[in-house]
Design a protein that fits this description.
about 375 residues; 6-stranded parallel sheet; about 15% strand; Rossmann fold
Length: about 375
């Protein structure tokens, strides 16, 4: 009988990264493959990203209508509770032999918890990392403890997952699929890209992806206001904004960048670009600003400098092409000007690159799924 594998994608935050692995699983004739899409994919506010899944000719086997009215902590709690019930209904009926999920989002945590209670083996991608000023950090480590198999992006993260009590035999250092996406995708040429979106050629291009720091000493409203105030004071720059994730205060951030776009004419906003357009803009930008993991994991492979704002990504391993900056107007302005003037003076070695990441993950999954499942026990580091 064919083995059943279900891949969960909660939002745009993980789907683009999962794409090469989904393709490998789907094309294997020995596997019965299903996709579960979280309700954020169907949010009009955040770009109806389920269309990207369908555009890739992937069938969404299960989804459910659950909207977050406001991106508040209370709504996130409601989302997790209601979505767990919906996920468990699908999982009980479909009975997969394994679920595959990626990252640290609360959508992923909900699906992981439902799978755990139903004794379904869980393979988790991107465990062991740190993002100290986001509640995603604790969710990621919780997902690690609920999961059975771990595909990490760096040797240091492998050590951390083992430190959390996971058996080394079930932890695999495979690199980051985001880097693989960049290398294998046919990115849009610069002239074609800028012409399509009516972006001036002469000005410096700065890509901006900035998410709320959900565990920060700095007031969340101040976080976006300080950044936008700094950006407004710089001339001869074209800003390319993409929406933040569906975090608490996420809609407030969107409101503020929308207002910025109305006042600062040299800018454009995208609800969601899709990974190919996003990486094309990233490749053809002079700088990426914000606190997105894409500036840490993917930008170095495209030889693009990163200005990492605040502490959301604090704890990760960084390329030397990443500059860190407090969320302070003066410091942000100083660093942007300095980087744009000395743009080529950087080392772009990417610590997250490994060849054929998705192939390595899929090869291990195939081995694992054909073995008899054993309930894991806590592994003590001696």
């Amino acid at each position: 009988m064919k083995k059943k594998i279900t891949v969960f994608t909660g939002s745009r935050a993980d789907y683009g990264l999962l794409r090469p692995l989904i393709k490998r699983i789907k094309n294997d004739k020995q596997i019965n493959f299903t996709i579960v899409a979280g309700s954020h994919h169907f949010s009009r506010t955040f770009g109806l990203t389920y269309k990207e899944i369908l555009k890739d000719k992937n069938k969404i086997n299960y989804s459910y209508p659950l909207k977050i009215k406001q991106t508040s902590f209370e709504e996130v709690i409601k989302y997790c509770g209601k979505s767990m019930i919906n996920f468990s209904n699908f999982l009980k009926k479909n009975k997969p032999d394994m679920v595959v999920l990626l990252g640290d989002r609360y959508e992923v945590f909900s699906f992981c918890l439902a799978s755990f209670f139903l004794n379904i083996p869980i393979s988790h991608i991107h465990g062991g990392e740190l993002t100290k000023s986001a509640f995603d950090d604790s969710l990621r480590h919780s997902i690690t403890k609920l999961s059975d198999y771990h595909f990490v992006s760096h040797k240091n993260y492998k050590k951390r997952v083992i430190q959390l009590g996971e058996n080394p035999k079930n932890v695999f250092n495979v690199g980051a699929m985001g880097v693989e996406n960049i290398i294998k995708n046919n990115l849009i040429p610069k002239d074609q890209l800028f012409k399509k979106y009516n972006i001036p050629v002469d000005d410096k291009k700065v890509l901006i992806t900035f998410h709320p720091e959900t565990k920060s000493k700095l007031n969340i409203e101040k976080q976006i206001n300080i950044l936008l105030s700094a950006l407004f004071s710089i001339k001869n720059v074209f800003y390319i904004f993409t929406y933040n994730n569906t975090d608490p205060y996420g809609k407030y951030f969107i409101k503020k960048i929308t207002n910025f776009n109305k006042e600062f004419k040299n800018s454009i906003i995208f609800k969601s670009m899709g990974s190919n357009i996003y990486h094309s803009f990233l490749k053809n930008s002079d700088l990426i600003i914000g606190n997105s993991s894409s500036g840490i994991i993917e930008a170095p492979s495209l030889k693009v400098r990163t200005l990492n704002i605040g502490d959301r990504q604090k704890g990760r391993i960084f390329s030397k092409s990443v500059t860190h900056c407090k969320n302070n107007k003066r410091k942000i302005v100083e660093n942007i000007k300095k980087i744009l003037i000395n743009n080529k003076k950087a080392i772009f070695k990417n610590p997250y690159y490994k060849k054929d990441t998705s192939k390595k993950i899929f090869r291990q999954i195939k081995k694992i799924i054909n073995k008899k499942y054993q309930i894991k026990t806590f592994y003590d580091v001696i």
